[in-house]
Amino acid sequence: RCCMRRAALAGLARAAEAVAGPGRACGDRLLLPARPDPRGWREAVAAAAGALQAGGLVALPTDTVYGVACLAQDSAAVRSIYSLKGRNGGKPLAICLGDVERLYRYCQVNVPDELLRDLLPGPVTLVLKRSEELNKDLNPFTSLVGVRIPNHPFVRELARACSGPLALTSANISCQASTLTVSEFQDLWPQLSLIIDGGPIGDVQSPECRLGSTVVDLSVSGKFTIIRPGCALTSTVEILKQKYGLIPESA
């Protein structure tokens, strides 16, 4: 696995600065160009996709907080991400996709396509009924799955580069605060194959910036349930109630 990762990283010296982090048993840190640079981002995406396809865990920036991703269809990688988080399979992981069109393969959708596109990409996790296509070892105790399409170009390009969905969770131990810089989850570095450093996400002094995505259950036709308020509660509820007439229920 490490050999495959080194091969994927070989061209990155021309596009980005690779920084060796202290005290890591494994893992490479790649500084993402501040602006979407076609060449640099393309090679960074290739490196991250190679690490994922080798069964690794990759830390990356999203539109809300830093996350850790693996291939959702890779059961061994899913077990690794549960171990990283210090949680059992009873607390579900979201899947991450690059585009709304791909959502229909892994979920049973009972809301208008326009509704999906009003909320995605964006800082919202939509909980829907899962399809038979999704790995049964991912969240085995529920018939539902949360879906993220972050409004972040790197994450979306990476998701498009992978044959199946990513499993995505926040880059922190369960019950600890979400992270806005790579240094804040330094304790996790030894268990990661690759760290994509996109710089600080939002204001690191602001608690509001650590709220993560708004999680809303849309699995029941005509209704919605807010599972986690997150950072986009007001706008999400406004769209669901006023534009689409969905009825709110308490979690």
Word description of this protein:
It is a single chain. The protein contains seven helices and 13 strands. Strands 1, 2, 3, 4, 5, 6, 7, 8, 9, 10, 11, 12 and 13 form a 13-stranded mixed beta sheet that branches. It is globular. It has one domain: DHBP synthase (Alpha-Beta Complex), CATH 3.90.870.10. 26% of the residues lie in helices and 22% in strands. Residues 1-25 have low confidence and may be disordered. It is an alpha/beta fold and 251 residues long.
Feature tags:
single chain; 251 residues; alpha/beta; DHBP synthase; 13-stranded mixed β-sheet; globular; disordered N terminus; L-threonylcarbamoyladenylate synthase; double-stranded RNA binding; transit peptide
Structural class: alpha/beta
- What distance separates the N and C termini? 42 Å
| Basic shape | globular
CATH topological fold name? DHBP synthase
Radius of gyration, in Å, reads: 18 Å
Strand element count: 13
Q: What is the class in the CATH system?
A: Alpha Beta
The CATH homologous superfamily name equals DHBP synthase
Note the beta-strand portion: 15-25%
| Helix/strand order, N-terminal first | HEEHEEHEHEHEEHEEEEHE
How many separate domains?
1
CATH architecture descriptor text? Alpha-Beta Complex
